[in-house]
Specification:
alpha+beta, five-stranded antiparallel β-sheet, three-stranded antiparallel β-sheet, 3 helices, 19% strand
């Protein structure tokens, strides 16, 4: 996986943000920075407000306030950068893996996925669910484009009979596993 940069024109600060197939057949998707512009903008706004507040706290000799707001002003941009650098979904022949902002993987056997469900609490999410109803992997849909979500769903469900329950947005939300 190391060294892969995705499709041409998909990079942001040296990061792959589009889906693609690696030479060994492993498929990888990264969140789209452009699609996440409102979240990135909000993080930049909060970070700059925190930096301004930290400077103001320093002028009134409030050391605790300066430290707290300084940490927030530095931590938010670092967290956003780490998320777009490390977050990805990888699907192999046998596994589905989701990497978080720290690069930690949540790994589940691909064969256990019996259903893909869209849930809206606390925010829109695409959930890969077992036949018993256990959520294996949850993906925040606000950070991924509709095309990426559709590609991930299609790749995960290849070779499986799909029953669409008619939910809008082009996302496959339920399936009935049967052999062809």
């Amino acid at each position: 996986v190391r060294g892969y940069r995705g499709s041409a024109g998909c990079g942001f600060a040296g990061m792959a943000v589009c889906g693609g197939e690696l030479p060994n057949g492993v498929k990888e998707w990264r969140p789209s920075v452009g699609h996440s512009a409102p979240i990135v903008g909000l993080a930049a706004l909060v970070a700059s407000a925190s930096a301004g507040t930290a400077v103001g706290m320093a002028f009134v000799s409030n050391l605790a306030g300066t430290v707290v707001f300084g940490v927030v002003a530095i931590g938010i941009p670092l967290s956003v950068w780490a998320y777009f650098r490390n977050a990805k979904i990888v699907i192999t022949r046998d596994w589905i893996e989701k990497y978080d902002l720290l690069g930690r993987a949540t790994r589940s056997p691909r064969a256990q996925v019996a259903q893909i469900d869209t849930r809206y609490v606390p925010q829109p999410a695409l959930c890969f669910v077992t036949s018993e109803g256990k959520v294996l992997i949850r993906v925040n849909q606000r950070l991924w484009t509709d095309q990426q979500v559709s590609e991930i769903s299609a790749e995960l469900l290849s070779g499986v009979h799909v029953q669409d329950r008619g939910v809008s947005g082009g996302v496959i939300v339920a399936l009935d596993i049967q052999s062809f």
